[in-house]
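User: I'm putting together a teaching handout on how multi-component assemblies are represented. Below are the sequence lines for each component of a complex, exactly as they appear in our records. Could you produce the 3D structure of the whole assembly as structure tokens, so the students can see both representations side by side? Please keep the chain order the same as the input.
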Amino acid sequence: MNAVFYIAAGVTVVSTVLVITQFNPVHALLYLIVSLMSVSLIFFLLGAPFAAALEVIIYAGAIMVLFVFVVMMLNLGHLAVEQEQQLLNPRMWLGPSLLVAVLMIELVYILAQGGSHPVEGSIVGSKAVGLALFGPYVLGVELASMLLLAGLVGAHHLGRRAPDIKSPGEETS
Amino acid sequence: MTSTPLAQVLMLAGLLFSLGLVGVLVRRNIMFMLLSIEIMLNAAGLAFVAAGSRWGSPDGQVMFLFIITMAAAEVSVGLALVIQLYHRLKTLDTDAARTLRG
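Assistant: Of course. Below is the structure of the complete assembly, with chains in the same order as your input.
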């Protein structure tokens, strides 16, 4: 099980280095998703399956989709078409899919070994996390909801088109 | 089960954090700076989960949940700022946004 951890850690570091050295934002996003997935595998190895699922669903799912939307929004016109064509180029997705294939092999290996042996300690399941979250940490949950509300209002306010820069043929809200 | 010491997971978290810090300091594209901040938050979450699993307590995962919540709020505000910056200055370079009254 140690070897699995080391390979996942290697995939994490390699893909993170590739995130901060890329020049195209979409390439960097793909490598960041690979990095998040390998961190999720490490969570699974550490005996935290709930955190692993949240990492994939919220980080790699929701937050990265937000990034992709903004990247696609920013360059409109023929630049976006070029970017789409570049996405279909095999050279672009070969690196991330190789790294993800390594993770996939590791996952199949773990499942073939018979499920979730933690590298260290015991498995802390979602039930324990839920009991802690709504027991002693319930004040933190309330504060998190307020933080999310503030984020929502802030994003709505900042995302509005400023009234002094009108692009032609577009009404300001 | 022969155990991976906590120190190795924490070293990985520290390495990821410093990679994200290098990204924030080196890159001047605001999109990459936001991505590097995400890397740093993720490394902090990894340290929390590793420490929580070392002592078999759910507190680490609870803190990871709070970190994810904060990351979601930060990303939504940050991306709204990116869109504003691009509409006003037509660039993603943070050095172009040095002056307060553009």
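A couple of points students might notice: The domain at 6-90 of chain B is CATH 1.10.287.3510 (Helix Hairpins). Chain B is about 75% helix and 0% strand.
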